[in-house]
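Supplementary Methods. Inverse-folding protocol.

Structures were first reduced to a discrete structure-token string of length 197. This string, shown here, constituted the complete conditioning input.
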């Protein structure tokens, strides 16, 4: 009879979830600079060894947790039209940026990146890069359907779609009114040169 593995071989999902929740709460309350592995372990109700079985360092732990949180909230739907895809993507982006914890975490991570250039690449690639890849898939689908010009500058288009929401919610700390997404979608369709916009 095979022996049940122990130690590093077993990463219990409920423990990982408790740690993930603890990391997000500690980041929101203490910020990146003051977050400690000890505090995360205590909040999660685990020993520090449970953290180190999953990640080698505080930076790796934070990057993994924030990436997982962010990427799972990126819309990857195909509604059949660019207008519908944009609406779903923008609603998901707003939900991500206004999440009670993450709305306090992201500004701190951006500030930490400015202070510590070595971290910039991690945040940019782990959060922004993966979300931009999902956005590029959406735009390429629209090009294939003939809704967008074939020579669309994808990098610029992705900036045009995300920047207004980030600026409004994170920088200005303004509300997104009930019709905000619909108005922004129409503006984005015109800016991207969508057919029939």
């Amino acid at each position: 009879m095979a022996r049940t593995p122990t130690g590093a071989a077993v990463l219990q999902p409920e423990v990982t979830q408790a740690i993930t929740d603890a990391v997000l709460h500690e980041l929101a309350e203490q910020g990146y600079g003051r977050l400690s592995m000890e505090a995360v372990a205590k909040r999660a109700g685990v020993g520090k060894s449970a953290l180190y079985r999953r990640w080698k360092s505080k930076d790796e732990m934070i990057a993994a947790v924030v990436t997982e949180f962010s990427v799972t909230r990126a819309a990857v739907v195909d509604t059949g039209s660019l207008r519908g895809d944009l609406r779903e993507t923008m609603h998901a982006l707003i939900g991500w940026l206004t999440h009670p914890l993450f709305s306090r975490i992201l500004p701190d991570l951006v500030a930490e990146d400015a202070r510590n250039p070595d971290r910039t690449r991690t945040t940019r690639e782990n959060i922004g890069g993966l979300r931009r890849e999902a956005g590029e898939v959406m735009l390429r689908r629209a090009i294939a359907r003939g809704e967008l010009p074939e020579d669309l500058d994808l990098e610029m288009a992705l900036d045009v779609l995300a920047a207004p929401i980030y600026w409004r919610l994170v920088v200005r700390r303004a509300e997104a009114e009930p019709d905000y997404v619909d108005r922004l979608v129409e503006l984005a369709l015109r800016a991207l040169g969508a057919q029939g916009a």
